[in-house]
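Why does this matter for the project? Reviewers at the last site visit asked to see concrete outputs rather than summary tables. In response, this paragraph embeds two records directly. Each consists of the residue sequence and, immediately after it, the corresponding structure tokens. Nothing has been edited or filtered.
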Amino acid sequence: MVEWSRVARRIRVPLGFAFAVLYFWLARPSWRSLAFGAVLIIPGLVIRALASGHVRKNEALAMSGPYAYTRNPLYLGSLLIGIGFAFAARSWWVGVVLIAMFFAIYVPVIRSEEAFLRERFPEFEAYAKAVPRMIPRLTPAFRDQAAGGFSMNLYLKHREYNALLGAVGMTAGLIVKMNFLAN
């Protein structure tokens, strides 16, 4: 399993681009499906943006902002974005592939990252007991850190704006397909 998590980590981005091609081929968007998808896409983008402004990779264990609610807000945001785009596509095949990719690629990566964090940060064990892996708590695990320090510099350093640009590009592609390439 350790070997697969290394492979999964390496292939997740290229596989994402390959999935995008399949996605556009299978997508049958409508204005209603785009609006319904946006209900999940927009919060997913906000969660990712907030999380990226709190994480100091390999320097400190992120426990503030969204990390006070879920250990994996970046993946939660990505999952919401993916589900939103699956609804926007109006293709059950897209949903099936999305779920398969999540379990085959992201679950092993999450486990691998958590193993790394356990080794690197002694406080991770207590954090993991207080904060769920994916489904967020309703209240922050650590009140004093729930609001703590969003950094626009970190957001920019992690280039999280690329998620927003990608979502805008995908939406534009769906609109083009819907209006100009429809059967």
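We now turn to the second protein, recorded in exactly the same manner.
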Amino acid sequence: MIEKLKSFGIIIKDEKLLKTALTHSSFSNEHNVDNYERLEFLGDAVLELVTSEYLFLNTSYKEGDMSKIRASYVCEEALDAYAKDLELEKYIYVGHGQEKDINKTIIADVFESVLAVIYLECGLSVVKKFILELIVPYIEKHIQFKYDYKSLLQEMVQTDKKSLEYVLIKEKGPAHKKTFAVEVHIDGMIYGRGIGSSKKEAEQRAAKDAYLKASK
């Protein structure tokens, strides 16, 4: 059980699901168990919904400004901060060789996967209250995190009604220390490239490359 969740009145009864949410692929490959990747997908969507609703109901910003603010508070840097408020890094299961490299990407992913578990077990109203109690203090104090370039690029592309695709072009290395290379395609043309220790990190770097080029 994640002790800090108790202070929010949250108790997760499905311990197997919670362990999955805390399990990195390096551990799951070694022990033949599920990892957090599917849960992370769901948690990401829940986080974006709750943050979007908060900005819509509590500010009068235009769409573009809300997108930029939301991007700042759902980026990897921000999720790492929220996760550390909960001391999540103490509970993450990783494989041999990964123990000393539990980086921001892994911690941020686990935060999203834990959100998914709370949503599945406790419902939207509970996870919404939990997310807002964590994030709103950062917003009210105007604490700025690095921009989520994927969100900024998506906004730019939507304005011009162009297609956007992230293409994994290379994946190498052992399971506990993989390297990913990703390209960003806009209307079928390569606009940016990025390399990272996870697909999410590589996509962010590719998005940043593309966004900065497109903004010139």
